[in-house]
Structure formats: structure tokens, C-alpha cells
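## retry 2 of 3
previous attempt timed out at serialization; input unchanged, resubmitting
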Amino acid sequence: MKRSPFSGAFAAATLASAMLAGCGGGGTSTTDSSLTTHTDASWAWSLPVNFATPAVPADNPMSEEKFQLGRRLFYDTRLSGNGTQACASCHLQHLAFTDGKAVATGSTGELTARSAMPIANAAYHPTFNWANSGVTSLEQQMETPLFGTNPVELGINDANRAAVLQRFQGDADYTLRFTRAFPGEGSPVSFGNIIKAIATFERGMLSGDSKYDRYQKGQATLSASEERGRNLFFTEKAECFHCHGSFNFNDQLRHAGSRVVETPFHNTGLYNIDGLGGFPAPNRGLFEITGKADDMGAFRAPSLRNVAVTGPYMHDGSIATLEAVLDFYAAGGRHITAGPLAGDGRNNPYKSDLISRIDLDAQEKADLVAFLKTLTDESLLTSSRFADPFK
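## retry succeeded, writing output
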């Protein structure tokens, strides 16, 4: 079999990423011998090249009935307190399940503090949200948009909880779907099962059919610029691979074969509003959870898959384009010269050692952008399997 021209670089980069994953703010290492994959006879993973089998919790095994139920719930606006918004309202398929906004808007009009994260390949995340080491499953994460009050997203609360559930309990089609997805349960239409079904849909949403993935399989050829960008990405000059070197192009990774799971968080020098390393509240990264000074401004490195369609960028959507993101990293941080957020992030005392000035010329930046665009999976953006079933 012909060996991919990338295979050596990929292995080296992945190894480097694993070795360096603890670098940056908030890095932790956990051992979890319970990780495995649980499916029923209806489910078979169709894994992209180089992808590991996802870990699936024992109390929520994968099934096609549950996946399809979760898909409907994901797109159903009845799953909000006022019936106006669905999960899909902030996670649009053509934008790789982001919303194109700096920060998201909840069902009551309240703005969230952070941007909507992409969902594809979330099956491989050991932690969720931008900076919360305590949220470790899709099921747990789903509670925040459903029931969170600061900010309000879907806006389900004690006053409307029963009414929201009745929308689904009184729907004959949904009742049948819940019964099939959760056989043997006397009252399957419950918020617990709603969460399990949506988590199953999200866990089954894999993205690995980009031009770059086809290149790995010998089915596509990179342009000269894309190839130069690939080489830069996986070398010490650009240093991108330190935080984005896994098959999912990030550095927090968990799968069915994992035993030791690294969960690093990074301060990239985006802000330094007080000259002492401060980030603007309530967006102070892992510090908001731990209260530890070293966790100020520490956020999870997102996957770069589909990154060309998931702007604006950073946790608060404060950088508009990929080109501007590269300028930010090449400068070793961001220097804001005026206004309430003024400060020199390049001198942030909590900034990761991995973030330093990089000498990139205009052509090299263009080449890196060209490579990043090869990570767009058009099939994810258009697949009927992940699309709105009500259309």
C-alpha cells in the first residue's frame, strides 16, 4: 500500500503534541480506565482515516434510533422556554455548527460571554466549553444551554419545565421515537433522555473528509502554497502543532483507548488589561472556575478542523479573520493601545511559553491560511445526516 507523504510528519507531530500537551495554563493529567465504546447492534462507527474509536459512556450507548431522535431535538425550537430557539439556532450546519457571531444570543435575547463552539468531533473532547475543567461529558455539557441562568440560553427553568416537557410528551411521533430509543422504560420522555439523545447526536457527528484528509489517503493533491503551509504548520518555525497536532487538530483528546488524558488550557496573550495579566471579566478563562492566578486567561485550544468557516475567532470572537489570527500569534500576543481593554498581551505574565514572536513573512502567512482552508469538510456542511429533519 502506498504510504501517505504526510504519515511521518503526522506521527511526529502527534507525538510532539502528546509530549507537550501539559504546557500552558491549567494542564492536568488524568487516568481513566473506564473509557470504552458502547453501542447497540444498530450502530457502526464510520471512522475517518487516522481517527480513533470514540469513548462512549456505559449509561448512554450509541444507537441509530437515539441518534435520529437527538437530531430532531437538536433542531426543535420547542426545546426552549419560550419556544423560539433550538440548539441549532446557535450551531448552524453551513458554519460547521457555529453561528458566525462574536458571541451567541440566547432565547430571551441575552448575549453569552463567549462564542458558540463547533460541535463536530466533540466525541473526542475530555472537557467542554471554552474553559471548564469540571465539565467532562456531552451529557453534562448539555445541562448548561438547557437550564443555565447566567446567561440564559434555551431558558428552561422551574416555572416552565413541566410545560416544555409536555410539548414532547403530548406529541405522538415523539412518544414513539422515545420509546424506540429507550426501550423498556415506562416513561421515556424525560429531560434525562432528551439530554442523552442530543448527546448521542453530537457524539456521532464526526468530521474527517476535508481535502487534507483526502490528501492523507492519497486521493487529493495539495497546491504548492498548501504544501508549504503544511510544512510550516508542523515545524518549529510556526509551532502550530504544539497545540493543534492531534488528528483532531487540538491538544485535548480522549478516545476509547485512552488511559492518560491531558487537559491543558492556554493563556495566549490576548489581553493584559491591568498590566498584571488580567483578562476582562467574566471572560477570565479557567480562573473563573479555580480562582488560581496561574489560570488567568487560560482557555482550551479548539480544534482547527473547519476553521475557515468558524470565524470570528478566539473565545470572545475578538479577532475577525484567519489572517488576523496569524498576525496575533506571530506577534507573540496582542497589544491593544486604547480603550477599556488596553494593555500589552505580549507581556502577560501568565502567557504560555509556547506563545512567542514568530518571524513569518506575508507569503508564509498566506501559505498557512491556504493549508488551514484544506481542513474544511464540505460533507459536514451539507450532509443530510446532520441536517434539519423538519425541512
